[in-house]
Design goal:
By secondary structure, the protein is α+β, with helices and mostly antiparallel strands. Helices cover 44% and strands 12% of the residues.
């Protein structure tokens, strides 16, 4: 179980299914709008990083990405802090 915490920290994992969902989102919306949104979001996040995590090591993110691809509604991003940061 994860707890969503808005804009306090971000950890984005590189998962090919998530990338596919993002690419689909980009194809539906203006790229400039998406870039502006991401830039504004990252300005409000003190510490952030992007790193590659193998699919086999990140099964839960794969399940979430599959859900995002399977549903035909807008994808919403919730940021969760690791349990050891409480």
């Amino acid at each position: 179980m994860a707890f969503g915490v808005p804009l306090n920290a971000a950890h984005i994992s590189d998962n090919m299914e998530v990338i596919g969902a993002i690419e689909e989102l980009l194809s539906k919306r203006s790229s400039l709008t998406i870039i502006r949104y991401i830039t504004q979001f990252l300005q409000n996040v003190e510490n952030w990083s992007i790193e590659h995590i193998l699919k086999e090591e990140n099964v839960e993110a794969g399940r979430i990405a599959k859900l995002a691809i399977d549903i035909e509604e807008d994808l919403q991003l919730y940021i969760a802090l690791p349990f050891d940061s409480f």
